[in-house]
């Protein structure tokens, strides 16, 4: 278990402040451990709260363990004297074993994703994860409805099923989760044919019936004004926005590559190439912080 610095906080604590301030917090997936530093550096430069995340499927695809990701996160945060509020989050995860590993590695938030299961089974699995995590001081995100995908990196299905507001209220009551990922028009990956849309009426209805913080997955490629409207809805809207694909695309473009690497391949890059890639990722994260989730200079709202 990592010793947690005072600025590494839970998702619940981070999103309470974001919702009050009417901004969202970007949940950035570096996908490669050498790029964790690039995300942290962007948050520090922008004086912005941050969420650094990786999903179970990304761990498998890129060849990383929760322990390696957590160890690198804490080492980089300490080495770079990161002082802004940061959440270390495990994104889409199907297995309790991976959640346990992540919590043991110092993650302060985990996401259980049983959204492909029938409602009752999803609720039971999500409650089990919430009970386990809460007993260890860790926040829990779950998903209701199914969020589509275009690249199958984070999820296995491209099916989309919009979240029902009444079901959302019951789901939160049964599970006790801290945050809820809702399906209302966005998708994981790059928008090539279909275009993103956000059903604001549905979001507002969910928020009116649900006390927990709302999460939008599939932030990459969504127009900034569309996203800003989602977190400025009356009564509180979306507080967490997941961004993964845009970071990897900027890294690969800087390196002149089209094909993804494994984490080992990324770690084996020369120092000059790594620096080039990191700066590209940092620029992308800064752009998202400043113009997309509007969290620049919001770190001062947090009492750490």
TrEMBL record:
CDD domains: TBP_aldolase_IIB (cd00947)
Matching Gene3D superfamilies: Aldolase class I (3.20.20.70)
Residues holding Zn(2+) 1: 92, 188, 217
Binding site for Zn(2+) 2: 113, 143
Annotated cofactor note: Binds 2 Zn(2+) ions per subunit. One is catalytic and the other provides a structural contribution.
InterPro entries, sorted: Aldolase_TIM, Class_II_FBP_aldolase, FBA_II
UniProt keyword terms in alphabetical order: Metal-binding, Zinc
Known cofactor(s): Zn(2+)
Active site: residue positions: 91 (proton donor)
Translocase listed as a keyword: no
Binding site for dihydroxyacetone phosphate: 189, 218-220, 242-245
GO terms, molecular function: aldehyde-lyase activity; zinc ion binding
Gene Ontology BP, a term: carbohydrate metabolic process
NCBIfam families documented for this protein: cbbA
Name this protein carries in UniProt: Class II fructose-bisphosphate aldolase
Record organism: Cohnella zeiphila
Taxonomic path: Bacteria, Bacillati, Bacillota, Bacilli, Bacillales
